[in-house]
Each structure stands twice: as C-alpha cells, then as structure tokens.
Amino acid sequence: MNPTAGTQEPPLGDMEVTTSDVDRVERALIDASTRLPVLVFYASAVGWLLFATLFGFLTSIKMHSPDLLTNVDWLTWGRIRPAHLNALIYGWGSMVGMGTSIWLMARLCRTTLRHPLLLITGAAFWNLGVLMGIIGVLIGDNTGYEWLEFPGYSAITLFVAYLLIMTWALIMFRYRRRGHVYITQWYLLGAFLWFPWLYAAAQTMLFIVPVQGVMQAAVNWWFANGLLFLWFGSIGLGTAYYMIPKVIGRPVHSYYLATIGFWTFAIFSSWTGMMRLIDGPFPAWMITASIAAMILSVIPVATVGLNHHMTMQGHFPLMRYSPTLRFTVFGAITYTAFSIVGVIISLRSMAQIVHFTEVSMGWTYMGLYAFFTMVMFGSMYYIVPRLVGREWRYATLIKLHFWGSAYGIGLMVLLLLVGGFVQGLSLNDPTLPFDETTESILPYLRGRSLSWILLTVSHCIFAFHFGLMLLGFGRTASLPTFLNPLEEKSEGGH
Amino acid sequence: MKGLQSIFLGIFGIFGFSWLGMTVVPNLQIGSLNPQSDDEGTDIYPMPASGMALHGARVYAANGCLYCHTQQVRPEYGGSDLDRKWGERRSAPRDYIFEPIVMLGNMRTGPDLANVGHRPALQEKGAAAAPSPAAGASPAPASGATAGTSPVAGASPAGAVSPAPATSPAVAASPATAASPGAVAGASQAPAGNAPAPTASASPSTMVANVNALTSEGEPLPYTAAWHHRHLYNPRSINEDSNMPAYRFLYQKRRIGGVASPDAINFAGAPNDQPAAGWEIVPSYDAKCLVAYLMSRDQSHPLKEAKSAVVAAPAPAKEGQK
Amino acid sequence: MNPMSVTDFFAKVRRYDQNARVIFDRAEPIGQPTDLVLPYRPWFRRRQRKRTPNDYKSPAKDS
Question: What is the value of pTM for the model shown?
Fold first, then answer.
C-alpha cells in the first residue's frame, strides 16, 4: 500500500508540522471562540423550528378540516401557510445554516472567531426581521410572492442583519490561516455570496423597481429555486463534505470530482427556476432552459453521490454509532432522490399531469427537510458537544429524533408525491368535475397530518435535548472532551 | 491567493450569468409590453386595474388565495385547462402587464381563476360557449344558464341544483354596488369597454347586467357577485365537498335596520347559514374589493399572439405593438 | 496544447488530494473516527466500557 496514504507526511501547507497536542488545543480554542454566536443561531433556529412545526401541523389539518378555527382572521389557512413556510425557511433553515457555516468557517479557516459581536447583532436583527415578517403575514401584509411574503419592513431588517453576518464571513476569510482551501469552503463561500444577490435582486425587481407583468413570476421563482439550491443546497452539500469524511476519518474519495461537482452545481442549479412555471405565459425558451438545467444538474448530483458513496465504502456500519453520520447520510441520499424527482417532474409529459398538484410541495419538502434539515440536524449533533463541552445525554432521544424525522418526512414526501400524482390525473381529465380532484387528494392530506404528528414529536424531543445541552446537562464524557486535551488517552481515544 | 480569486470570480460570474439569463434578458423581451389596440386605437386590452379591484388584489394576497388557486390558462398541449373551459385561449404575457401583483399561482387545490370574472357572461351567452367550468359540479340552475346542456355537466349526474363548482371563489360584486357601475370598478373601467353587446369579452356593463341574476329558487347564479359572497362566507354551503376555508371574518353580522341592506348575502336555499330573523350578514369593504378583483379576472379578450391553443410565445418586436 | 500540461495536470490532481486531507491533523488523523459516538448503553449507566467504532471497523484500506 502506498506509504503516503497514512498521510503523516506534510503537504505543501504548514498544517501537519504541529504536534497533535497543539492541534487539539488549537482546535479547542477555535471551538470555544465560536460558542456564543453559534449557540445563539442554533437556539434561535430551534425556536423557529418549533413554531414552524406547530403552524405546519395546523396548516395540514386545516386542509382536510377546513372549518377548524375558521373565524379567526390571523389563523386562516391562507395566512398560516406562508407563516409556516417562511418560518421554516428564514427562521429555522437560514439560521441553522448560518450557525453551522460559522463553525465550519472558523474550523476551516483555522483561526479563532473574531468580532463575535457582529454575528450576535446579526442574529438579533435576523430574529427581529423574521418575527416582524411572521406577524406581518398573519395580520395581512403578505406581499403576494411565494418565499418572499415578508413585507418590506421585515425584508430590510433581514438584509441589514445579513450584511453584518456577511461582513463577518469576509473578515474571517481574509484572516484565515494560509493553506489549502477545502471544498466545503467553496460551497459556503458560494452560498454566502449568492444569497444577498438573490435577495437583493428579488426585492429590487419585485418591489423597488418592479418588473412588469409575468416577469414578476419569473423573478419570483428564479429566487425561490435559487434559495433552495444555492443557499440551502450549497450549505447542505458543503456541510456533508465536511461531516462525512471527518466522522469516519477518511478524506473525500476524489477531491477533483468534488470540484467538478461544485462548478457544475453552480452553473446548472441557478437556471432551474422556470420549472415551476412550465407551460405558463412565457417565452418557450425560458422554460426549456430551466428544464434542460434540471436535467443537466444530474451531473453534479451524480458526482456528489458517487463521492460520498466511495468515501464511505466499507464504513457504513459507523452509521449505527454516529448520529451525525446517520443524519448526514440520510440527507445525502435524499439529495440524490430529490434531484431525480426534480428531473422527472420537469419533463413536459410528466409536468402536464403533476404541475399544480401537491407533487410540487412534496418536492420542495424533499429539498428543504429530507435533505437540508436532516444534514443540519447531523451537523448540530456534531457541533453542539464541541461548544458546550458535554456529550449528548440520552442516546434514546437521539434515536427517537432520527426515526421520528426520517419516518415523518418519508411518509410526507411519499404521500405528497403519490397523492399529487393521483390529484394530477384527476385534474387532467376534463370529464371529471373539479370535485373529483379535491376528493382524490383528501386521503393523502389526512395522511400528511399523521406525518406532522411524527415530525412534531421528533422536533420537541430534539428541542428538549438541545435545551438540556444549553443548560449544561449534557453528559460528561469519559471519552476525552474536546475542550480538555489533558484527559485523553492516545489510543482509540476518539 | 490566486486560486481563491478564480473561485470568487467563478462564483460571481456563474451566478451573474443566470441572473442575466433568467431575469434581465427576458425582461428585455417581455418586460415592457404595451396593451394591444386595434386600428382605431379603441378596444384597448388589457386596461389597468383601478379602484376596488386594485385593493382587492391586496386582499387576495393577504389571505393567501394564491396558494390554492392559479391564474394562468395553459395551452392545449400543457393540460386540460382549455377543455375545462377555464379560458377560451391560453394566457399570454400581455394579459398581465397591468396586474398590480401577478399571482400566477402554483397549486390547484381549487380551480383556476384567470377567467372567473368572465363566467357569468359565458352563462349568459348560453349555448354558444359551454358555460362555467365544466370542471365543477356544474351549476345547472334552471334559468338562462344552459349549464345543464354542457357536455361536461353530464359529469355531475346529480345534475340537479348543486350550484357552484368546488371552491372557486369567483365572487361577483354585490348587487347593490353593481347598480352603480362606476362602483363596480372592475378591471376594464375604460369607456371603451362598455359596449353593451355580450361579446366574448364580458364588459363591466354586461357583468353588471347579470349580477343580479338568480336561479328559479332565488339563489344567486354561479359566479355572480352574490354567489361569490355566499361562497366566501361559507364554501360548504355551496359545495359540501369543498375544503376551502370560510372567510367569515370578511363579513359582519348586524341587525337589520329599517330596510334590509342590498349588500346582504343571499342565503336562499341554505337555511343553516341564514342568520336569525332580523339579522343580516353584510360584506366588509375588503370582501367587496376581493369580489371586485375576482370579477375583474377576465382574459377572454382575444390577443393576436394567443389566438389558437397551440401558439407559442408572443414576439412583440415583430408585432409592432410596442 | 502545452507539452507540460500532463505533468501539470497530475500535479494539480495531487494537490487536490492534499486538499482533501486538510481537515485532518495529528490529533484527529486519517483513520480515526471523530464523532462522539452513540455507545450501546442503558440509560444512566455512565461508567461502563464503551464500544468504540474501532471495534467494529472492517479492515478497510486507509484512503
């Protein structure tokens, strides 16, 4: 076997010259420096997750029991639905994504976190923005654009918050330790540069200098798919590229493949927006371009899938022991499925049936939850102990969380995809009155509420467990903790 | 570091490419369309929304109607929209140039609404066009409407008087406001639109004319203003299987003054929803605006670029319409 | 094409693979799983010996 495979040999950088103790202390210092900002983001995110879950559950129930709580204006279905989705996207998704990214960036830049106040202020403003936005939507200030429902006063707050956070990221990057750049950093850099552009362009072209007519819809969905792929997708992929190799202790199988995957991902994903507007009132070339982009995005998806699979070859049993690995691999596999489903529903013959049905919701949730959220859960299971200096206390709670979420989202996606297809068949048959379409989807909607029960339980368990960690009730590890290097044994210690 | 520079450039460049290609360039192509007009400069379509319909768009957005209803008619090869009589032609970009908020929608939990304001006129026209969305359990009230004869109506074997298709809140302006056409304020407020003849483009006056239409049982004709109010107040009083939320908070219950308000909801045939004697349910301003907005949903006016079911995108430059 | 490009290419690929090793160091080297693993243990019993992933790792190649 290649003697350099064990890689104690120093590469071009200065990294490996240090001793393992110094490495450990350094890493511990970096982790300690990230503690407050990252926990602030995580705690906020978990709070929003609970809110989003509650409202998601209610939204689901009201779709098959529409007379529930029907007299209250701020609880009408058309308001709680965007409140739920926006809380999920901007409250939970964006904040947990930023929290994980902050920690990853500190680790990968190999420098302690500077200017934590920038981040904490940013988090505060972001929370404020989301809160104002949710309240705005519930009282009737919905802008009318999907994924952009937050009214102006909220949007500007979010944007200001983001500028603070991005400033921090750029400073960190500027002061990073010289050395190799890791693939995760590419994805995170991408995400952090793409998001403000997406958001500013959408806000400008829809509200400040509004484009005319159907261009609004084109901008809207360019933004939404952009957010799904280039903000959430990018953070999720970058995180997986760190967590999987790190947990199993093996480098990425082919880094070269990973870089190809990044560029093709960036190129193709950004063009997919119009697949939400197939056969709509647009020039045909726009729609065709998006369909082509969806199909071509199979290339980056395949590279990522192949890479992870080969990296994990022979180490799949580790998923039994590592919550991080479990959640992350679930997410990574779903990413492949999500892309395949996306391609299928973009094909015109399929779109004719499934467009405007629950399939679109199912696909969105595959991306937002089954892929992104699960990867984020995995990253939290890795990162939080390194911030609080304690291990997660109850293995059972972790397992319940995993299975609750896995079955919950699996059931939901299955129901929405199948049910949506059935709905679409009915919709597409002009001899059937519209009633039939409603009838056909109802049983699936009821099933979806069941899946929300699973998700609600799972999230409550996770929030509780996370709360224990915040309060210091984690388990003191008899394995070395990562903030106290002296207790460790050198053999099999990790 | 040089490598990093190229990563930065790549990240910016690639994304800039998509931003240009997906938003800026299309905006050049379809982002500054003018309305279509005929040679005399009359018969301009579309016309800007105004008045109550404009506010109604905000009410529509505020209450999330766009999450269940689309407002785009797909071409014949794209789906069954035209077969369901949700429009006489596919939607084109020019239809939306004056929309305050373009809410094309992404989900059809409920039927498409692009032409919901046109359906009363279709019913009025009679046999020429199969009236109202074949989709729904067709209204089949005895008077005027030939819904009963429409081929699709056969699909609702109850045939009988189950009015209204599921969940389409095609709300007509309330009868009282209709009486003063100015107040209806629907989309085509322009004088040109007032041609009384029931052409394919239902003009406001035509809509005003039939807005009081009732069935032989005294129930509001589907898709008229009164019908919309009733539907919004309680969708299940019109269609039991509907899962549309009830928008009661848009309505107020109050004591009948000397004379019953002309705005009061007509609950004929729905005794469960009828308020107690001496009380009436009237729409709030928001409800009236929402209904005005819905009544303004009308893409029946022919467009040169979207005549047939299979036409492709408009090419404004060639049209000389700019 | 430049006759040096083949050598350059291999150098590039090797550098890429070195990039892949960047996340490891002497303290958390390649071959060493790093997550705080979920040991099989009953609730509240803290002191029992934990089976580490190393016990279960299949004899795979290192990289």
Answer: 0.83
